Structures are given as structure tokens and as C-alpha cells.
Amino acid sequence: MTRILVVDDEPQILRALRINLRARGYDVEVAGTGTAALKAAAAHPPDLVVLDLGLPDLDGTEVIRGLRGWTTIPIIVLSGRAGSADKVAALDAGADDYVTKPFGVDELLARIRAVTRRLAAVPVDATAEARVGRHTVDLAARTVTRDDGTEVRLTPTQWAMLERLLRHPGKLISQRQLLHEVWGPEYQHETNYLRQYMAQLRRKLEDDPARPRHLITEPGMGYRYRP
Question: What pTM does this model have?
Fold first, then answer.
């Protein structure tokens, strides 16, 4: 059973989400502050977090960074902040998706299903490996290792995006295709997601993120992995 931690300071939202998610078979825990959320996640690690940014003690981006210090579980932001700067900050901190309040429960459930699908490993050749600069990516084991032996941790969404590029070396993968395959068919215009996650991957894998040699952007079209 998928375990979801819902973090929001509005009791009516916590109650509504707890009822709706449990009715659909999810195991749900709730927290009303960022501090309580971090303690709950550490004590009983969830499979997914639904997180409000406007918490009374910590900003939601701080909670994201706190979680990302030790876990790669998916994080869906649920916030009344609709500005692009807030979305970019949340995605940069490590969020996997962003839902703006007011929201429909059906929409949130669809986002949860989409991000949960990314947890399922795509069947690959057991020996499948790829090189990105000074890193070896083992697609079967889902690990990234630097040449000095240090492991690089990726979030589920970072993995999903990287894997689709590495499995098609040299091929242009369109923006729409990446959005559909990584986030789901309902995503068509959220190209800012692609930009943010590609920037994150380059910071982790490219020797010079500002001048990438392997994770290439084809302006207005899509992305390409250059071996």
C-alpha cells in the first residue's frame, strides 16, 4: 500500500485529503507544520509527500530541501502560490510536481498516479550502462557512479527523464514526448519542468553545466543524449 504524507496547515484540507486518499486505498499520515512533517518522514518514511508551501513555521521549499538531504521520494507541491518564480523555486529545491490551489481532488489524484508510475523501473538489459562525462549510469541498478566511486543520487523524476534520453542515444526526444512519458499524457505545455530538471541533471552529471557535452538542448524541439 502506498503511504502518503500530507502536509498542510489548513485542517479542512488535511481532513478532506485524508478521507479521499484513504477511500482510494492509500495509507495516509498528516502534518500541520514543516517541523512535524520532517519528524514524521524521518520516523516513518512515506512513499510520497503532498506538501503545502505556506506553512506556519518553515517555508515549504525548506521542507523540500530537508527531505532531499536524505531521500528521493516523490514530492508534490500543493500551494496557493501561482507565480512562476515560486514554481521554479520548488522544482529547483527538488519537488516533482506542482498543483495550484484551489484544486480538484481528481486532478491531485491524477498527479499522484503519474508520479507513482515513475517509481516503477522500466525493464532494461541487465548489463545496460551509459557514460555521461565522468559518470557511469547503470540503468538496471538505477545508480550513477562517478569515476572516483562516489554515488550520485537522483530523484525519481530525474531518473525518469535521464533514462528516456540514455535509452535512445543520439536521438532527438521531443518536449511533448518527454512530458507525456515522464509526467503523463495530461502534460503538454509545462516546458518549464523540462528546463528545470535538465538543469538539475546537468549540475549533477556534466563537467561544465553551462556548456553541456552530453545532455543537449535542441531549442524549441527537445533534448538529446550525445554519448
Answer: 0.67
